[in-house]
Amino acid sequence: MKDRRAFIFDMDGVIFDSERAVIECWKVIAPQYGITDIETHCIAATGLNEEATRRIFKEQYGEELPYEEMRMKRRALFIERFDKGLVPVKPGARELLEHLKESGYKVALASSTSEKTVRRELGIVGLLELFDVVIGGDRVTRSKPDPEIFLMAMEQLNVTPGESVVIEDSFNGVRASHAAGALTVMVPDILQPDDEIRSKADLILDSLFDVLERVKRNE
To answer: 96 and 110 share a domain?
Structure first.
């Protein structure tokens, strides 16, 4: 990580332990529509924005699927259960972000979640002020694994891919970061990397505390 000036984070599964929470909410809603295998397709959609997730669900369950109705029920359940700061911040996230800020690095968040939701959730736990740039998935036209969101973050931070580190947990996020040309750090959450993802990730670390240790070691 030597000579890197900027760090770009995904949110769900990296900053928050929220991927499991979202899947659990889908598993409550799906049986109301006769769907019993929703978890498999939720995992396939990890790291994707809302439009890409909609396409996956409709491809699997048919165009007649009332996806928007289901999504609103899932969102309401998530808010009921988790939206008051109850979604845990991942171990090491606060410590890493505070160190990066104090050390003068540029820091961005690039999430497939809508920007309004991203800002609200970061604000609830007091992390929003630690980011110089925040970009939600509703601000890009192409979802991860396309690199658009990371390239946008780099442009707004005024850095090049060669100066940037991306921290991701999802397969699609790793693919997007690799395509953007950044140093790609995977901190696995729901899925462990397969051979393809290992070939695209420059580093695979167990936790954000491990990322912090690497940053300090290279300063």
So the answer is: yes
Residue 1, domain member (yes or no): no
Beta bridge partners of 101: none
Radius of gyration for the chain, computed over Cα atoms and rounded to the nearest angstrom: 17
The model's pTM is: 0.89
The encoded tokens of residue 81 equal 């259960």
Residues 44 and 141 in one domain: no
- Do residues 133 and 108 make contact, with C-beta atoms less than 8 angstroms apart? yes
Q: Give 81's pLDDT tier (boundaries 50, 70, 90).
A: confident
12 is catalytic: no
Q: Are 4 and 165 in contact (CB under 8 A)?
A: yes
Residue 69 domain boundaries: 19-82
What is the per-residue pLDDT for 17? 92
First to last CA, the chain: 9
Catalytic residue of the set 10, 146, 169, 189: 10
Q: Per the domain annotation, does 145 fall within a domain?
A: yes
Sign of CA dihedral 172, 175, 180, 184: positive
129 in any annotated domain: yes
